[in-house]
Structures are given as C-alpha cells and as structure tokens.
C-alpha cells in the first residue's frame, strides 16, 4: 500500500494558510479593474519581468480585470545612444525631438509586443495597444517650467472604450504610453501619467506603481520612517510639508489625484521584489505603501 503523505506536513499547511488568507481579497476584488504601471529596474531584468507578468496573469485568472501600462525609459535611452544621440531630461521629462519620438515609439511597440508574448505564453489572451489606438489618449503639448521639450504630451482626455471592449472580451490589455494631439501628431507620454489617467477614466478599484524603491518614507534617509498605509489627505500633507522630493513628488501627486477621482486604493511597490504584487494584494501585512480613501474599510 503506497503512502502519499507528504514528508513535511507543516510546510504543506503553511501553503494552505496562504490560500485561506488570500480568499477574502479574491472575493472582494473579483471582477474589479486594477491598473498596473510597470517600468523601472523590474522591466530591465528578465527574471523579474517574468515574475511581474506571472503575477498579473494570476490576478486575471482569479477574477481581477488587470490592465498593464508600461514604460520603457531605459530601453529608449539605450537606443537613442545607438544612433549617436545623448538623452536629455528637464525636470525628469525626456526632451523629445522628432527623431527621438520615432525611436521612442519603436522601442515602446517592441516592449509592448514582448509583454503580450509573455502573457500569451502563460495561457491568457492579451492585446497590446498604444494610446493612439481608438483615440485612447488625447494629449496637448507639455512644457517643463515653460521650456519646450518637444513631443511630450500632457493627457487632456481619455477615451476608454477600446479598453472596456477588450476587458469584456476577456483580453488583458497592455498599453504603450503614446498619444495623438488634435492635429494627429504623435507624442510621448510619461507612463505614470498615462496609468493614472487610465485608472481614473476606467473607475479602477486599484492603481499599482511598480517602482525602484520599497515604498514611501517620511524621511528617505531613515529606514524606520517607512509608511505602509496613509490616506490621500495625509499624503497631501507630506507633499505640502516638503517631506517628499525628487521623482517621488510627481508620483505621489498622481496617487492622490487618482484617489480624489474615484480610484479606491493606490499601491507603491518595489518592483525588484519577486511577486511583490501578490504579496501586497493577497496578504494581510503587505509589503509596500498603500494610499487609501479617508473612509475606506480596513481590508
């Protein structure tokens, strides 16, 4: 008679506990839209890239309606360098002349289809679109402190019909941050801005930023000042008090704007941590920073 009892019963029981802990989150967020902004170091490392895609695919399979909005900044800089140009930034925004715009669109389309392939390999249907498709992202020219930075767009309107249609047909949409202006000129769009605008227009339940830091600190030099959860009002107080600087300032501004415009919760996660999405969304403790509405429930 064969004995199939596992050798380490304690380890098996821990797996069961993890699944039970995830159950209320799966129930609560079933059929809810989650927008994941994907970029940074997690995108340049192949193993981390696969982990992120596995996470998003699992979210889809357990009932979420995920949408990926991706960047490609490091890859764009690499290709700009290949043609003998030097990347220039003003206030964190890439100065984008016509040639750089052409390179950026080429790279973003390449990244987009690479992510589509990864999702499809895991057995989930995915469709890659840019903000130009179906008039998804309509922009106007963006300036950096009054300086002309070329073909960089500021989103003035989102037409989410193409995304609703894809979700309805059970596809996972993957969006490249490129859009048209009123004259149908192509503009590069900051991926954080695109993710925030899409989350607001879609009435997303969650907006997740995968970044290169662990989350939000009251004092970036003091690791004990990590903030795991705060309200949009508390986040605005940190901004007004001058506690937040650098690249986190516009990101946190996007977070509070999303909350004020209907998104229930925004997460800032370290995309370099394997399976950070699952750890944040399906566990009681979480690992990043969650920004919530003042009146939100505890779960």
Q: How would you describe the overall organization of this protein?
A:
With 299 residues, this protein is of the alpha/beta class. It has 10 helices and 16 strands. The protein has helices at residues 9-29, 41-44, 46-61, 73-82, 98-121, 161-168, 191-202, 232-240, 248-260, 276-281; strands at residues 33-38, 65-70, 89-90, 93-94, 126-130, 137-144, 147-158, 172-176, 178-180, 186-188, 206-211, 216-217, 226-227, 229-231, 265-270, 289-292. Strands 5-8-2-1-11-15-16-14 form an 8-stranded mixed beta sheet, sandwiched between helices. It has a two-stranded antiparallel ribbon with strand order 3-4. Strands 6-7 form a two-stranded antiparallel sheet. Helix 4 crosses helix 5 (98-121) and helix 7 packs parallel to helix 9. The longest helix has 24 residues, at 98-121. It is globular. The termini are far apart. The model has no long low-confidence stretch (mean pLDDT 87).
| Biggest β-sheet: strands ordered side by side in the sheet | 5-8-2-1-11-15-16-14
Largest sheet: 8 strands, mixed
Spatial separation of the terminal alpha carbons: 46 Å
Give the overall form.
Answer: globular
- Please give the share of residues in helix: 40-55%
Give the assembly state of these chains: single chain
H-E order: HEHHEHEEHEEEHEEEHEEEEHHEHE
Q: Structural class, judged by helices and strands? A: alpha/beta
Q: Low-confidence spans: pLDDT under 50, at least 5 residues?
A: none
Gyration radius (Cα, Å) is: 20 Å
Mean pLDDT figure? 87
How many helical stretches?
10
Strand content: 25-35%
In total, the number of strands is 16
């Amino acid at each position: 008679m064969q004995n199939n009892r596992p050798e380490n019963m304690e380890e098996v029981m821990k797996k069961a506990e993890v699944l039970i802990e995830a159950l209320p989150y799966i129930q609560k967020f079933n059929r809810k839209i989650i927008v994941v902004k994907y970029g940074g170091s997690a995108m340049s490392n192949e193993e981390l890239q696969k982990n992120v895609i596995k996470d998003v695919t699992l979210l889809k399979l357990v009932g979420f309606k995920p949408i990926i909005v991706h960047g490609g900044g490091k890859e764009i800089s690499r290709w700009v360098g290949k043609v003998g140009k030097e990347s220039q930034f003003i206030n964190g925004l890439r100065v984008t002349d016509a040639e750089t715009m052409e390179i950026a669109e080429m790279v973003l389309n390449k990244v987009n289809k690479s992510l589509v392939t990864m999702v499809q390999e895991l057995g989930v249907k995915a469709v890659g679109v840019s903000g130009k498709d179906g008039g998804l992202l309509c922009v106007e020219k963006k300036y950096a402190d009054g300086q002309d930075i070329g073909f960089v767009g500021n989103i003035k309107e989102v037409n989410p019909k193409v995304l609703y249609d894809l979700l309805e047909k059970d596809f996972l949409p993957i969006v490249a941050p490129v859009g048209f202006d009123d004259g149908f000129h192509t503009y590069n769009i900051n991926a954080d801005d695109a993710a925030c605008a899409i989350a607001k227009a879609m009435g997303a339940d969650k907006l997740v930023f995968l970044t290169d830091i662990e989350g939000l600190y009251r004092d970036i030099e003091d690791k004990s000042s990590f903030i795991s959860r705060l309200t949009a009002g508390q986040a605005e107080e940190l901004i007004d008090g001058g506690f937040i600087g650098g690249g986190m300032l516009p990101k946190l501004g996007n977070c509070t704007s999303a909350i004020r415009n209907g998104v229930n919760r925004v997460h800032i996660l370290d995309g370099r941590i394997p399976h950070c999405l699952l750890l944040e969304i399906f566990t009681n403790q979480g690992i990043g920073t969650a920004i919530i509405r003042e009146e939100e429930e505890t779960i």
